[in-house]
């Protein structure tokens, strides 16, 4: 059963109810928690994070860099859900992410893989149901599709 844009956006936003943004203890911890999960479960991807290639969850916990990076990432994920209903803005934001990541020379297959990582993170917090997962995958598919065509347009590696 396919979902409308509005339904996709609604389910994604609902799945982020416990992903608090803020300078309070909860906001700071939620930010770090993403990278603790990421580096523990996908250690090969640490290679893109210069100087943190060997970081463990404990290193992330003590890191000011990943406190800041985690807040940016969580804000970006909230943003995806908030702007999904405006297709033009959503696609422009996807292209902006290509510019911001260009310097890391990421494997282009990682753009869609991110949504498995992120729903896995939500799952690890017991906060995601099947419909919400399906909504993130639908959003991710559109995000990835815009990114891959933009990479192609720029003459960069794409899938
Ligand atoms: C920054 C990798 C997917 C949002 C970064 C940095 C790296 C990176 C290496 C620099 C941080 C540092 O070294 O301290 C990756 C990888 C991805 C991925 C490997 C896929 C598996 C995404 C996605 C989003 C995103 C899908 C959007 C939802 C950001 C943001 C920053 C960032 C907001 C902060 C820097 C900035 O805004 O310019 N990413 N990224 N990333 N990434 Fe990603």
Automatic annotation (TrEMBL):
GO molecular-function terms, A-Z: heme binding; iron ion binding; oxygen binding; oxygen carrier activity
Record CDD domains: Mb-like (cd01040)
Binding site for heme: 101
Span of the signal peptide: none
Transmembrane segments: none
InterPro entries assigned to the protein according to its UniProt record, in alphabetical order: Globin (IPR000971), Globin-like_sf (IPR009050), Globin/Proto (IPR012292), Globin_nematode (IPR012085), Mb-like_M (IPR044399)
Pfam families attached to this UniProt entry: Globin
Gene3D superfamilies: Globins (1.10.490.10)
Domain Globin positions: 2-152
Keyword terms of this UniProt record: Heme, Iron, Metal-binding, Oxygen transport, Transport
Family: Belongs to the globin family.
UniProt-recorded name of the protein: Globin domain-containing protein
Organism this protein belongs to: Diploscapter pachys
Organism placement in taxonomy: Eukaryota, Metazoa, Ecdysozoa, Nematoda, Chromadorea
